[in-house]
Amino acid sequence: MQKMELLSLKGKRAERLSTGVQYLFIILAALFFLMPLYFMLIGSFREMIGAMATPQLLPKNPTLKNYFDLINSSFPVGKWMFSSIFISTVTTVLAVLISCMMGYVFAKKSFPGKKWIFLLVITTMMLPKQASLIPLFLTVKELGLVNSYWGVILPMISWPYGIFMMRQFMQEVPNELIEYAQVEGAGEIRIFTHVVMPLVKPSIATLAIIMFLQSWGDFMWQLIILKRQDMWTMNVGLSVLIRNASGGASIINYGLAMAGGCIAALPIVMLFLAFQKYFIKGVTLGAVKG
Amino acid sequence: MKKSVLALISIVMVLSMLLGCQTQPSVPAADAATTTGSPEATAAAEEASSEPVKLKFYAYGYQQLMNLPGYEDKTQNLGDVYNLLIDEFTAQHPNVSIELVTLNPAGGGTEQLDVDIASGTMPNIYYDSLLRVTKYNGLGYLLNLKDYVSADTINDYVAGSIDPEYVWNLPTDAGPMFLAVNKTLFEKIGALDLLPAEDSREWTTDEYLAALQAVKDAGIDNTYPTIFWAANQSGDAANFGFLFGFGAKFFEGTDYSKVVLNSAEGLNAFNFINNVVQSGLSVPGAAALNDDDMWATWQNQQISMTGGYSYLQVLAKESAEPFEAYFVNFPHAQGQPNPPFATDTHTLAVFKSENEQENIWAAKFVEFITSSETWIPLICQAHGTLSMRNSFQDKLTLSPELAAIAKRMTQDGVLSYGPTCPKWSELRPLYASELQAMFSGAKTPEQALADFETEANAVLAD
Amino acid sequence: MNEKKPTLRSILIKQRWAYYFLLPGLLLLVVFNVYPVMKTIYLSFTNYTLTTKDFIGLANFTKLFSDQKFLQAYANCFKYVLLLVPAIMMFSLLIANVLVRARPWIQSVFRGAFYLPTVVGGVVIAAVWIWIFHPLNGLLNYVVNAFGGEAITWLADVRYAMPAVCLVVLTWTLGTPIIIFMAGMLGISPELYESATIDGATRTQLFFHITIPVLKPVIVFVLTMEIINVFQLWEVVYLLTNGGPSYSTMSMGFLIYNTAFVSGKYGLAAAQGVILTLTILLFSWLSLKASKEA
């Protein structure tokens, strides 16, 4: 990281102090954000059936029973994990591709009706999904996609969020670079893949993570499309698994739920870690210039 | 270049054809009669034929029905038990084939069936909790089984569990709701005599209050006499017995077009419950507690009694410090009879079909299930519920506590607290909201009750 | 130099690559986004339920404007947006700004810390929060008691329920803007800062005069998305308070879900959705205009 050179010493000390204060604030905020997650982790090692028990910083009688129950459950938890990972991965790859392609066009190309089409795209996001669920389901059913992974994947790919995001980031790519490449005789596809995309790598990585998460957590839709038990996703399956059998009412095994939550978070955490390298200030615009 | 353009154009054409050909979802033939009180006398116009018949069976995936004793290897998955039912029936009637759709319990609501109906797929037979089945009765979809099912079967049902004139559903089993008492705790404080006698299990509201007071006076650390909750609607039915004990009821007979809870009796009941909550006889913070807290405080022996279900007995046995559960009826006010029991019912219904043969065979399937001496006892055992048929009472293996309640039930009867009203799922949140306002002190009991009735009737009139 | 006025045909040919890039996504968009939305708008003029489907014109809309619950949910949405959106924008920008100057490993740690609640969020974390706010043995009341105060029924108290919901929403949603802004800030050429620093600019000046203007497209994106997300809020409300107490936390998103899936009134729910969409559209447009002036 480049250090900023400052002129006056007094200014330097003041800057250091304010940075220190800012860091303190951020550390406290981060701890606050992590606090519920910490208790979730601790909770996964406790037996808590029915409701959360009194707060404990460290479990008094820690047990691996919850994880054991998850792995040895008579439910196909492994298949659920596969479902979720498959759906989210395919959705993410295709969605990022589509978003980049369409974002590029909205950012760098001009054609009649561009503004209105873009506005239409964004406006469709403003209608809450619950309101349009039935019409969408009818469409998906007509296309014969019910009870198939593609019925979950396809509607998510063209989510305007990604298109909007890539357009904004690609707008910052200097036009000179593109023109330069065109002059050099590069084809449209080459310009896209070798000039534009590399410059927006951090935003692509960010979008990938957001898309993966979005697709992972699409509970309601997964519930009504995937009817076969071994095709359920982790979220749907877990909400069945954590309920104990009872006569007349459903009672939640919170310890099991916490363990399930921890395990369900693993794929995304791993993806996040894997993508960290794209967040480094790599190929900067300045370096390419000149 | 040209090839890809052609490909793209053809894709666009195909897709627009698909969209254009998309027909409007056929709105299933609704019934003219929208009030549930008016039964249709649809006599079975035909005899059951032996022509092939295809039926669709939508059944709720009850987790409890997995790993049934004696059939563990055949009921490994959610919904497997229904396949066994289908196999047994179709073995006797080879012309019938039944397709099973197991409803995912993660939903909690009726979304899955709704989207299928909206897209033109109707079930023939539907098995679910009465809470969810009732909605389709209100929409006019359900068949009056009176003329499709034998009179013997219909008369075999406990009074109040079905309407013999308008049999829109036939229960397999029902879990009564009652007061569960921590007998071990009362033994510890030497107040066993304050509890109802074992052979009668009945008591008055004064006796109930005395028992609560004894627990409060005993002053055990971190222990409360009882618990009430209103953070959400979950488990609301567990405490309706208090309302019935004062003679209050939600509806007048089978007239589900109007809520009548705001009566003198209703007000007495609300005042009584509120009194228990406000005078420290219940776990503090009732407005923010939910039924999860009921399970937890019961299991940890932090309460001496609570409204609830048969599972409380299991929890008592499996608790870290096991204790003895004692089931009694809700208290009745002076001058009122013992309150009838509210039940959580699992029931079968038949969706009307234009094909009369489908109706006939669907009804036969329903009758088969509800009369099965193999499966009904197993289902009851798995859920911890009772059969609603008189002839089955001695066919079940019940715990002594549950048997005592069953005996009480045959004497005090069953009262449908609400699910027979098709819009019950819309009334529940209203009730919970008013109860919450009352417990938190934001509204007086009079106000809460009056507001509930007004809002509820507005919803019903809509 | 013969500048002929470009014909439509020549534009289409010249820009054909634009269409190639657009087409696959546009196809999917039309089928799975635009068409259902159009259908829903149509349904808002009907009384669509499982058994009825008649065109009733504006009846749904006129009915809603005299519906207490709808009006309260609608007003609550504005409360949520005015409370949360400025907070989200401000905090995420400030935090991202501090973090981009740190070493990569510190960035990763904090990026993860703030984003993790978003990742895990859902039924499980809601359960933790309900416990934190629990009247009996919750963490918050534990602290309150330690300071000698009386336990509060946070989620059932009209004064505290909405702030509590807002707090939970903040922890669940702040992560995404933070990682987006960090991605944006990492793309800013350091040369822009160098020349200004040499001229004696302070960090604050750098932030307001270079970072923000350069990030404008990204800020526009995040602002719009957060407005949309907060207006559509429903999961936290559903999991934490069910809209209570006394409908003080009821949101439009939750109301629409209830109207559609509990009451079965899909036409009415569509109308509610349409009203919300128009509101969001107007609000976003006004916000963007206002921020341009700023």
Describe this structure in words.
The complex is a heterotrimer of chains A (about 290), B (about 450) and C (about 290). Chain A is mostly helical and about 290 residues long. Helix content of chain A is about 65%, strand content about 0%. Chain A has one domain (about 70-285): MetI-like (MetI-like fold), CATH 1.10.3720.10. In chain A, strand 1 (about 245) and strand 2 form a beta hairpin. In chain A, helix 2 (about 65-70) crosses helix 13, helix 3 runs parallel beside helix 6 and helix 3 packs antiparallel against helix 12. Chain B is α/β, with parallel strands linked by helices. Chain B folds into 2 domains: about 55-175 and about 345-410, 3-Layer(aba) Sandwich (D-Maltodextrin-Binding Protein, domain 2), CATH 3.40.190.10; about 180-340 and about 425-460, 3-Layer(aba) Sandwich (D-Maltodextrin-Binding Protein, domain 2). In chain B, about 40% of the residues lie in helices and about 10% in strands. Chain B has 16 helices and 9 strands. In chain B, the strands form 2 sheets. A 5-stranded mixed beta sheet of chain B has the order 2-1-3-9-4. Chain B has a 4-stranded mixed beta sheet with strand order 6-7-5-8, sandwiched between helices. The longest helix of chain B has 20 residues, at about 1-20. Chain C has a domain at about 75-265: MetI-like (MetI-like fold, Orthogonal Bundle). In chain C, about 75% of the residues lie in helices and about 0% in strands. Chain C is built from 15 helices and no strands. Chain C has helices spanning about 10-15, 15-45, 60-65, 70-100, 105-120, 125-130, 140-145, 160-175, 175-185, 190-200, 205-215, 215-230, 235-240, 250-260, 265-294. Chain C starts with 7 loop residues before the first helix and ends with a helix. Chains in contact: A-B, A-C, B-C.
Approximately what portion of the residues of chain C adopt beta-strand conformation? under 5%
Total helical elements of chain C: 15
Helix share bin of chain B = 25-40%
List the strand order in the largest sheet of chain B. 2-1-3-9-4
Give unreliable regions of chain B as ranges.
Answer: 1-42
| CATH architectural name of the domain at 77-267 in chain C | Orthogonal Bundle
Largest sheet of chain B: 5 strands, mixed
The greatest inter-chain interface is formed by: A-C, 105 and 112 residues
Please identify which CATH superfamily of the domain at 77-267 in chain C we are dealing with.
Answer: MetI-like
CATH topology call of the largest domain in chain B? D-Maltodextrin-Binding Protein, domain 2
Q: CATH homologous superfamily of the largest domain in chain B?
A: Periplasmic binding protein-like II
Low-confidence sequence ranges of chain C: none
Determine Rg of chain B (CA atoms, Å): 25 Å
